[in-house]
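> forwarded from #structure-qc
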């Protein structure tokens, strides 16, 4: 279905079943009982797509099925009845970021994208950690430089602290 045709038949807010990965006949295990949150439009690749509530990426119109209100409501109730109570701890900030970003990482499969996302987050964490250690070492060097007696006890302690921080950085990097 073309975007203009979809928009003519289905306004923003239309109740839909959306399949972010693949359709049920292709083995999908994820179905969103949701509604459209934008008008349909063409993606950069030329596919007609729409954004739906509860999904951060657009979904191709071939993976969106408008449904009647009674069907949608029944599916929503069935989904709520099957949703187990959360038993795990809240996600860490890293897990939240990874969950938001993995779909945007180019790869052949979802698993590859998730692995690459974690690799990129590891690299970012290492860079941030190294910068923080270097900033702390520079802080202690600055305190030592500010001492009148460069060979006095306080200056030596501050330089020692700077060196300790650099050793911790080297240890964290390995």
């Amino acid at each position: 279905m073309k975007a203009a045709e979809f928009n003519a038949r289905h306004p923003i807010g239309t109740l839909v079943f959306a399949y972010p990965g693949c359709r049920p006949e292709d083995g999908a295990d994820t179905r969103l009982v949701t509604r459209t949150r934008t008008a349909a439009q063409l993606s950069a690749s030329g596919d007609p797509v729409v954004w739906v509530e509860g999904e951060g990426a657009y979904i191709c119109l071939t993976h969106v099925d408008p449904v009647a209100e009674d069907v949608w409501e029944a599916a929503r109730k069935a989904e709520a009845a099957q949703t187990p109570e959360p038993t795990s701890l809240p996600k860490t900030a890293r897990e939240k970021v990874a969950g938001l970003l993995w779909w945007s990482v180019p790869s052949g499969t979802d698993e590859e994208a998730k692995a690459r996302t974690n690799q990129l987050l590891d690299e970012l964490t290492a860079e941030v950690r190294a910068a923080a250690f270097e900033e702390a070492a520079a802080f202690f060097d600055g305190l030592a430089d500010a001492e009148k007696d460069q060979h006095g006890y306080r200056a030596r302690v501050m330089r020692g602290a700077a060196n300790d921080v650099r050793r911790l950085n080297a240890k964290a990097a390995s």
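QC bot note: The mean pLDDT is 89. Residues 110-146 form the longest helix (37 residues).
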